[in-house]
Amino acid sequence: MSGTKKLGLRQRYEYLTRGLDWETSYQPMDKVFPYDSFEGIKIKDWSAWEDPFRLTMDSYWKFQAEKERKLYAVIDAFAQNNGQTGISDGRYANVLKLFLTGISPEEYQAHRGFAFAGRHLRGAGTRVAAQMQSIDELRHLQTQVHTISHYNKYFDGIGEFPHMHDRVWYLSVPKSFFDDARSAGPFEFMIAIGFAFEYLLTNLLFVPFMSGAAYNGDMSTVTFGFSAQSDESRHMTLGIEVIKFLLEQHPDNLPIVQKWVDKWFWRGHRLLGLVAMMMDYMLPKKVMSWKEAWDIYFVEAGGALFQDLGRYGLKMPKYADIATAEAEHISHQNWAVFYQYTHAAAFHTWMPDAEHLDWLSEKYPNTFDKYYRPRWEMWAKMEKEGKRFYNNALPQLCQTCQIPMAYTEPGNPTEICFRSTQYKGDTYHFCSDGCKDIFCDEPEKFSQAWLPVHQIFQGNCGGATVPDVLRWYNMNVGADNMDYVGSPDEKLWNEWHAEKLRQAS
Amino acid sequence: MAQIASITLVHTDEARPIIEAIMADNPGVRVMNMPGAVKLDCDGTITVKRASVEERIGRSWDPQEIQLVLVSMAGNLDEDDDHFTLSWRH
């Protein structure tokens, strides 16, 4: 028998996060870690940090390598078997376009942000967890680009994703979200992305959406999605541990953390409106409605979490009740915006068919028939009459979330919600009390926001006309934009379909 | 409101014995099937026991291997060499 006994999980983690760390002596610790005090967070004992996964580097590489092997086997099989022809409908590809242009570049921003946190937080356990997450996020970007590059061979609106991410009007919504987080201090970043985004909201993005990919025959996306999500469980744990750690370390941290939770919950809620629209309108075969996902993943799971965090004095995020009420409206209001501005979007839009309308009526009994179905039916009728409705005015944007001002007053879905405030002699406009509060707390930061519509009017986006701006976006006009019906995507899809029927007969 | 502890796993051959072990070891577990994934909910706490998984797969199993099939979870995590537990209890 061998005399050496294998170390247990707890001991291995202990050695990694305690034994390998040291107090610097050539330079004072405050100079080595210059960013972890200016936010006002007080830490008494960094060694109290514990990652419940207790993941060590050797295990990390072993598991990640295994995940990659499995994922790339599927991506290869999908390509070899022309999996793109087996998706539920050609419309489905638009989900991938929005995902790749809107979300994947944020994986990269998360990678950069966690690399920063993994360098600048003083505790070794925290740094190790943040560094692992940083590598995960880079992996997510890479696997998403690799997976969707296969679709780029056939469908429009995909190839210019990094360029579009930096320029196209609606992509400033996710871009500004991550720019905001990354220009904050490391603790706010951890609450913003680690807690509010990863713990509270990421399930809403990945679980129903990836399950949707599975249901729509997109084997490669479901695999990258679930492969990424297996890392997310670790990220969620980091998010919840960071918040517990901060609240346990010092009572003075509570008001700071509460403010960040309020801010990032609301910003996340606004960002996820894009996902709401994907789920309710863009998946040809639907798994669950946005409202159902919100009830499971925010009302139920978030409720349990805040009940738990209540012992530290942390409250449900401000305006959580309003966000829950908006779950019955937000996907419809966003789809209406994209339908009206389809000429300026890098994915296709459409009016729901009769079966889809009935599904929406069933899933949204309180709101859909009353407020949205009549509008969709009117727009469908206008289309038939050759008078398809386009909105040719540039919309006013919310200064904080950068979404066009299309949301309605809490409690009154027939009135657009406007808020405004003054700062240094200028007037700033907001879509909600949530976005206004965020601005008023950091006006110097948010008054500098790069708002796409303002930038167009200032002449910074390629010219004064819509074609000039679309050229500056690198938009392939007539292919990337406009309705699905009549698009090259639709033509290709119909050809594939006709070919299948011809071969079967 | 009951605090629900939850684990979501991919629905694959590799995850199936883990799903079975969870269903055997957590009385009252509720199962929600989604395309490609399974969400398992329990009031208060939900656990995966190493021994139960090993019994089903016939080889030794490290609870950290659950990361290969894990999609999401809710609850405070406690993991060691013998179990993987999510709980809202303190």
UniProtKB/TrEMBL annotation, chain A:
Q: What class of enzyme is it?
A: oxidoreductase
Transmembrane stretches, start-end: none
Q: Where, if anywhere, are coiled coils annotated?
A: none
Q: What GO molecular functions are on record for this protein?
A: monooxygenase activity
EC no.?
Answer: 1.14.13.-
Keyword Cytoplasm included in the entry's annotation: no
Stored Gene3D superfamilies: Ribonucleotide Reductase, subunit A
| Residue ranges of every copy of the YHS domain listed in the record | 409-450
Under what name is this protein listed? Phenol hydroxylase P3 protein
Organism of derivation = Acidocella aromatica
TrEMBL record, chain B:
Q: Name one GO molecular function term.
A: monooxygenase activity
Pfam families given in the database record: MmoB_DmpM
What's the family?
A: Belongs to the TmoD/XamoD family.
Protein name, please? Phenol hydroxylase P2 protein
Q: Which organism is it from?
A: Acidocella aromatica
Taxonomy of the source species: Bacteria, Pseudomonadati, Pseudomonadota, Alphaproteobacteria, Acetobacterales
